[in-house]
Amino acid sequence: MHDAMMRFSRKKLSVLIALVCVFTFYPHENIAEGSETLVTHQTLTALVSSRTKWLLTAPAEKGSSKTKTILLAFTMDGDFHPITFKKSGGLFRVHVQDHPTPSDLAANVPPTQLSDGSFVGAGKSGMFINVDTIERRWLFVWPSIRPSTLSKPVVLDRDNVAMVGFDGSLLLFQKKEGKWLQTQLIKAKTARALPDAVLTTADLDGDGRKELIVPAVPSRLYRHAVLGDDIEPTEIHAYRFNQKSLQLMAKYTAGKNGVFEAIGTLVSDLDKDGKQEILVTKSDYDRGATHLVLGMRNNKLTLKARGEAIGQGNRWSHLLGAFNIDGSAPKVLAVEKPHLAGFLLALRLSGKRLRERARMAGFTTHSVGSRNLWEFTLLRRRGVSEVVMQEVGRQHLSGLALFGNRWHFRWTRSIPSPVRSNILTADFNQDAKDDIAFVDQSGLVHIYLSK
C-alpha cells in the first residue's frame, strides 16, 4: 500500500513537473520558432558609392504599374543611381547603371515621392526641386524663403507640396500646366515650425481631405539631444488645406514641463471611425517618454489616449507607427530605449489607453544623434507580416512576427556592418515576393531576394 502510494505520488509529481515545463518553456520555444536564418533565393551586393545614404523605389518606366519598380540608391551628392536585376542561368545579376540622375537635392532626409514616381525636396542651393528619374527631367523653383534641408516635405494632393523654410516658415508649392510655383508663404513668426520637421498629413475630420500636421514652437526645455540636437517642438499644429491655401485649424500643446520628442508625427485610424488620429511621443524629465494619441473633437485637437511612460527622464521611445500586422486591430509599434536594452513593443488602443500587448528586448532602430528614423521595415513573407530591424549589437538583422500577445522570432541573419540607410522592402526582381535592401556603414548595398 505504501509503495503504491509512493508510486502514485511520484506519478503526480512527474505530471506536475511536465506541466510546469510546458507552461514555462513552451512560450520561449514559440518565440524562437521558425528559421534560424533567413532563407533567400539569392543574396546580392552592389557597391554604388561610399556616400550612398538612402534607398528608394521608382516605376521602371513611365506609366508602368507600381508593382514594377526599380531600386534607386540616393547619395549624399544628390545622385540617383538605378539598380536593376537580370536573370541568367537561374541566378539574378545586379547591375548599377553607369549614368545616374544628378540633382542638387540635400540628403539629410529621404526625398519625398510624388504619385507620378518623381521626387521633391530642398536643394542644397536653396531651391525647391522636382526630379523625374524616369525621364531625367528637373523642375526648379526659387522660393521667397530658402527651404530647410533638414526637413522632409509632404504631398497634400497630386499637385500640392508643403515644405518648411529654414527659419520655421511654411511654404506651399503647386504644379500648374507642367510648372511648379510657390503659392503661399506663412511667415516664421506665425508658423513657428520646427526647422527640421518631418511633415505629415491626416484626415482628422473624416471629410476625405488631408490636413497638414506640423511640429511647432521649438524649445530647449528638454535637452536630451537624441535626435541630433536639444531643440524639440512643444506644439502640434493642424492646418486645413482647401486646394489653394493652408489655414491653421487647431493646435495641441505639450504643457509647461513637456516637449514632443520627435521631428514628426505619425497617423492612423486606430478606432476605425473614418477619422485619423495623430501619434506622437511626449517627454519630460520626470517621466521620460510616453506615446500619445490625438484626435479632432469639436474642431479642437484633444488627447484621445496615452500609453505608459517609461518613468525616467532622458529615456526615449522610438514610435514606428500603427500597422495591421496580425490580422486583428491595428497595433502601434515602438522601440523603447533603442540605445540601451531596446524593447520592441506592440500597443493596442483600448478606451483611453494604449495598452501593451507584447514586449521583447534586444532590438534597435536608431543611433544617438541620428536623424534616420527608418531603420526598420515590414516584410510580408509566407502569409505573415514580419517586423525587420537590427538587434542591439547591430551585427544581426532579424524578422519578428506577432502571434497573440507574444513576439516570435522568424529569422535572424548576421550582417557585415551596421545599417546606415533606411531598410526597404519591395519586389525588386518581379517575382511577386517582397525583398529586402539596405546600405551598410561602408556604403555597400545589400539585397535579399525572397524565396
By secondary-structure content and strand pairing, the structural class works out as: mainly beta
Cα end-to-end separation: 63 Å
Give the C-alpha Rg: 24 Å
Morphology call: globular
| Low-confidence regions | 1-34
The fraction of residues in strands falls at over 45%
What is the residue-mean pLDDT, rounded to a whole number?
90
What's the main sheet like?
5 strands, antiparallel
| Number of helical segments with 4 or more residues | 2
The amount of helix comes to under 10%
Record field, number of beta strands: 34
Quick overview:
The protein is mainly beta and 451 residues long. The protein has helices at residues 2-31, 188-191, and strands at residues 40-47, 52-59, 69-75, 80-88, 91-96, 112-113, 119-122, 128-132, 137-141, 154-157, 160-164, 170-176, 179-186, 200-202, 211-219, 232-241, 246-253, 259-260, 266-268, 277-284, 288-297, 300-306, 317-323, 331-336, 343-350, 353-361, 363-364, 376-381, 384-391, 396-403, 406-414, 424-426, 435-439, 444-450.
Task: Tell me what the structure shows.
With 451 residues, the protein is mainly beta. Strand 4 and strand 5 form a beta hairpin. The strands form eight sheets. Strands 18, 19, 20, 21 and 22 form a five-stranded antiparallel β-sheet that branches. Strands 27, 28, 29, 30 and 31 form a five-stranded antiparallel β-sheet that branches. A four-stranded antiparallel β-sheet has the order 1-34-33-32, with no helix packed on it. It has two helices and 34 strands. Residues 1-34 have low confidence and may be disordered.
